Amino acid sequence: MEKLTGKERSPTMEKINDACENWGFFELVNHGISHELMDTVERLTKEHYKKCMEQRFKEMVATKGLEAVQSEIDDLDWESTFFLRHLPVSNISEIPDLEQDHRFISQILFFHSPMKKLAEQLLDLLCENLGLEKGYLKKAFSGSKGPTFGTKVSNYPPCPQPELIKGLRAHTDAGGIILLFQDNKVSGLQLLKEGEWIDVPPMTHSIVINIGDQLEVITNGKYKSVMHHVIAQTDGNRMSIASFYNPGSDAVIYPAPALVDKEEDQQKQVYPKFIFEDYMKLYAGAQVPGQGAAV
């Protein structure tokens, strides 16, 4: 991010644009978020899993007989997770054990503020690359109550048969822009590019950015929401903290007119207009997780 303030701004913006158009992912360093805070959040997240979630996960595995499966499992993820919604209304009281683990939750709540700020900075950089007025994407996400912003905290414990069960099945992300702080030692995240799964390797103190379905729609397909999954590992417990900056539930999503007007006649508006909440109902009801931006 520091390269955006000097003579390297133009080539850096070009790299971001190329990543959004052709990969749907890019990785940030020098993003301005304290490395000390990131280290603390990672440590406390792993401690919270050990204290509050590990036993429940083991009981689930035993109940479903997952350690002894003989064929591929396609309706379950090898993942221990919860989703903490910050905006528009917090759901912290609904999540087991969180309010009792004061150190952990205080750091997660502190961490969400700079992540939300970074998400909004990135949206304005995308506006600049797209030729949209500053603030257009933030406004498009706002709805009547502002955007939805939340944190998905996940742990992927060691898996005895990773060839038969995924850490997280292949999907696109239904929302807007996603900022991922992933484990700096245990790998697993892969994206789909031209029919091949490509590793997104751990990089200390980096943040992985990916484009969600709603940005694909608003950009009329210029930016891509890409299929990705998590491979379970036999060794190591992989941690990931994904911050989702999504439209408000009643936000009306449609391709930006300024981008549609630039297209050739045969490539006019590709996506319909819809309400984000309606899209989420379709997404949640899809038989295969993550059907992309096809509505």
TrEMBL record:
Give the molecular function GO annotations. 1-aminocyclopropane-1-carboxylate oxidase activity; L-ascorbic acid binding; metal ion binding
User: Would you identify the family this protein belongs to, as annotated?
Assistant: Belongs to the iron/ascorbate-dependent oxidoreductase family.
Q: Which residues form the Fe2OG dioxygenase domain?
A: 147-247
Question: What Gene Ontology terms for biological process does this UniProt record contain?
Answer: ethylene biosynthetic process
Please identify the protein, giving its name as recorded.
aminocyclopropanecarboxylate oxidase
InterPro entries in the cross-refs: DIOX_N, IPNS-like_FE2OG_OXY, IPNS-like_sf, Oxoglu/Fe-dep_dioxygenase_dom, Plant_2OG-oxidoreductases
Pfam families named in the record: 2OG-FeII_Oxy, DIOX_N
Keyword field contains Metal-binding: yes
The EC number on file is 1.14.17.4
Record's signal peptide: none
Write down the Gene3D superfamilies for this protein, in alphabetical order.
B-lactam Antibiotic, Isopenicillin N Synthase, Chain
Q: Which UniProt keywords apply?
A: Ethylene biosynthesis, Iron, Metal-binding, Oxidoreductase, Vitamin C
- Pathway listed for it? Alkene biosynthesis; ethylene biosynthesis via S-adenosyl-L-methionine; ethylene from S-adenosyl-L-methionine: step 2/2
